[in-house]
Predict the 3D structure of the following.
Amino acid sequence: MATIDFEFRNEIIKSDIGSTLAYCYQCATCSGACPVAQVTEGRYNPRRLILDALLGLKEKIFGAENAFNIWGCTMCDTCDEVCPQKVELTEIFTILKNKSIERGEAPAYYTGQASTVLEHGKAIPMQPAIERRREQLGLPKVMEPNVEEVKKLLGATKLAEKLPPKEA
Ligand code: SF4
Ligand code: SF4
């Protein structure tokens, strides 16, 4: 049986946005509208995640085996729009994602993408094959980002410190 972690529960509820968690009455409107819940046939379930956070069931939220419970969310905001109780689901899930990163549990596809943005200033760096294809299609050259500027901005968020060390 999962243990209630009151400290964790209170930490979320005491934050400005997290306090909306207390208004959830488990109607499941969020799960009914969530595109990820639909595609995964309920394997991803925002209503359940909100309940686990409300009850402080930390061990059902974190840990490698539960990664999809948090990281399955694409942050589309649909649940926020339909919730009759105005629970700030997406923001609460961001708090949980940040905690997952602190615990070193963010999925590699996520931290890898963040490293690419940090290094190249964009998520998908331009490659010769893409450039050739664009030229063949008569498309204009893609403007390159100002990588130093992006690095400066991401430096202010301390992103590099949050990413796992690169393998040698
Ligand atoms: S829609 Fe809102 S009130 Fe209903 S279960 Fe989801 S978070 Fe709770
Ligand atoms: S923000 Fe996340 S939980 Fe909410 S509807 Fe979109 S994918 Fe589902």
About this structure: The chain has a mean pLDDT of 92.
